[in-house]
Amino acid sequence: MIIIPGPASRGLGERIAAKLGVDAHPVEHRVFPDGESYIRLTAPVEGEAAVIVQTTSPPQDARLMQLFMMAATAADLGAESVVCVVPYLAYARQDKRFLDGEALSLDVVLKLLEDAGADVLIVIDAHNADSLRRVQRRHGIRVENLSAIPLLAEHLRERSYGGAYSLAPDEGAVHLAEMGGKVLGGTSDFFVKRRDRRTGEIEMVVKDLDIRGRDAVVFDDIISSGGTMARAVEGLKRQGAERVAAACTHGLFMGDAEKRIREAGADLIVATDTVESKFSAVSVARIIAERLKEVTP
Ligand code: R5P
Questions:
Q1: How far is the centre of ligand 1, averaged over its atoms, from the C-alpha of 231 (Å)?
Q2: Ligand 1 pocket check for 227: Cβ under 6 Å
Q3: Share of the chain above pLDDT 70, in %
Q4: Which H or E run includes 263?
Q5: pLDDT tens for residues 166-180?
Q6: In CATH terms, is domain 149-273 a member of 1.10.10.10?
Q7: Is the Cβ atom of 228 under 6 angstroms away from ligand 1?
Q8: Residue limits of CATH 3.40.50.2020 in the chain
Q9: Ligand 1 pocket test: which of 89, 124, 176, 220 has the largest number of ligand atoms within 8 Å of its C-beta?
């Protein structure tokens, strides 16, 4: 097995290689004056399982193009199989055609990856696992969707959040809160939106839980603008929660996301290294390394 960290995930690629006890072979990468990427594989891949590690957080399009080039080059140079580890899979939120003529972005990404020669795609906490499975059926690529939520919960348990309430920002993400709750040992639930009669503003509340004086953790797959997380944290503080931790797998933290979440009252913010940021206190290297042992010959 040859581990090939791409330009967007050099650190994570090296951590995965270390877990497997093998060398990492980062690609050579330059950007031409017009913005195009130059990619060169630095180790022979013929007859090997070539494992490319490349996240696709912003700038998504450039990173996807680099990913396609790495996969296509490995396939072209005779790799026995091409495994793409794409911890944060961009374009996964546009998985249905809501209006006539819309591009099915997730479908396009999978098609291009397959055409580039990828045999296996490993992702972490895909935005909608059901949609990913449905779209995958239209392609020949095998998709493995792992979750980092238990790792985030373990991290929080070690920081005395054991027994805290685990919450999801909406009903669709309740499985995240349930996974977190199993590790933390507390109750799990999700938020509902309620319109304040006086101000007309939407607020997020947890209905049947008495969280006064208790710790809580909000688990989400993505923090992008921070709006969802900030509203959830604010709602918990308003309902009397003691400490509130904001935990997500993919911390994009666009614009003033951190400020919004802190101002809402979060006592702790934690994310993983699927997207590197100052909040990446939890690494997904171990779960990826374990899955790689299963999917590579
Ligand atoms: C939504 O369905 C996702 O699970 C996240 O809650 C959302 O993408 C977070 O976005 P933002 O940080 O911009 O509110």
A1: 11
A2: yes
A3: 100
A4: helix 257-264
A5: 999 998 899 999 999
A6: no
A7: yes
A8: 2-147+283-295, 149-273
A9: 220
- Ligand 1, atom 7: nearest CA belongs to which residue? 222
Nearest protein Cα to ligand 1, atom 13: 225
Helix (H/G/I), strand (E/B), else coil: 169? coil
Q: How confident is the model at residue 93 (pLDDT cuts 50, 70, 90)?
A: confident
CB 184 within 8 A of CB 166: yes
Is pLDDT at 202 greater than 80 in this prediction? no
Beta-bridge mates of residue 268: 245
Any atom of ligand 1 within 6 Å of the Cβ of 131: no
Q: Give the number of the atom of ligand 1 that is nearest the alpha carbon of residue 228.
A: 14
Ligand 1 proximity of 50 Cβ (cutoff 6 Å): no
**Mean pLDDT throughout 4-21?**
98
Determine the Cα–Cα distance for residues 59 and 41; give it in Å rounded to an integer. Answer: 21
Confidence of residue 94 (pLDDT cuts 50, 70, 90): confident
Is 193 labeled as catalytic in the residue annotation?
yes
Task: Look at 185-189, 215-219, 285-289 and tell me which has the smallest mean pLDDT.
Answer: 185-189
Locate the ligand 1 atom nearest the alpha carbon of residue 93 and give its number: 2
As a dihedral over the C-alpha atoms of residue 288, residue 62, residue 129, residue 101, rounded to 10 degrees, the angle is -170
Domain 2-147+283-295: state its class: alpha beta
Asked if 143 contacts 136 with a C-beta cutoff of 8 angstroms, the reply is: yes
Residue nearest to atom 2 of ligand 1 (CA): 127
Residue 297 predicted with pLDDT over 80? no
The pairing of strands 280-282 and 268-272 is parallel
